[in-house]
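Quick one: structure tokens for this chain, please?
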Amino acid sequence: MITFVLLLLLVPDVLLSMRHVAVISPQDSVLHIGSSLTATCTLSPELGLHSRSLLWTLNGARLSSSTYRILASNVLSVTLHSLNGSRQQSGDNLMCLSADGRVLAGSCLYVGVPPEKPVNLTCWSHNTKDLTCKWNQGGRAETHIQTKYTLKYKLRWHERENECDHYSSEKQDHFCYISENIALFTPYQIWVEATNQLGSATSDIISLDILDVVTTDPPANVHVSRVGDLEDQLTVRWTSLPELRDIMFQAKYQIRYRLEDSSDWKVVDDVGNLTSCRLAGLKPGTVYFVQVRCNPVGIFGSRKPGIWSDWSHPAAASTPSGGDLLQRGSCDLKPSQQNSTLRRELKQFFRWLRKHAYSCSGMSIKLYDQWRVLLQKSHKSRIRISQNNNS
């Protein structure tokens, strides 16, 4: 108890002596990049030190004595020219030290630039339940000092401004998430304000209706399966999301697929609001990866299509093994000129058909199947003729 009381009595004296060891002036300067600064370190007489024995450091690195100037026996200055941006947003550390390395005083330097106008402001709503906005810093981006970004919004016909509360960032991208009190059928006005100790800037104001910027999760339960023994077709099925069964929206889907050993995707655009699709014109005995995504199309109050969701997780299946139909049809040992002409004509049509068979329309699939049957019958007929001639 006695020790504790003694400490309480001694602490004010210790703090007082530390407070008067030395003082750097100016304190915590805020400067533009390229500026110059002259700072002074003034010693307390109680130290018994001469200013010629002092050292200056910036971020732990000793500054050249050529930048020093003795102004008095207890005052030493340092001059810094063409300052670079601060290494960290919390500021650079300028220190005055004794010859033995003891820190006598310190100051922070904030060297940077004013923020530039934020750009690329975009927003989207997940199933009309929230609103997320994203923007970039703009211009040179890095300000080198702490810069605050504030997303503000209001309903078009209201004066009250609101501020977003939930911020995050990823590299040069900034985000803010609004999770409650989302208004439908009323346009929003949204903008971003950037401020730091050297200035401020404001983005362009965007206007949007929540129904125009709706997105959803990717389609669920995507499955790919064979179509019987057909060597060049696969069926894709998926489940419609519960949110899209809402009376306000209908779904539009898109499919993409690729070969197992390829990074090139082929896209099927005209799926519409179906939840299954038959892919035709594929290679036999080949593994395909397939993904599906969704666009919620507003029915009431929306002037624009929604925003595409992310692609679903890939699903895979392989087509049955077998040779190409035209290659199998050309196995006639003694082809006549008529058969050669027929194959050439069928090959030309088959190329056209493959080009147009990547859709999910019933007519395209039906036409494709009819020609597959015709090619198979033609192939079998030529085989029988060849066998009869050989016998």
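The longest strand covers residues 287-298.
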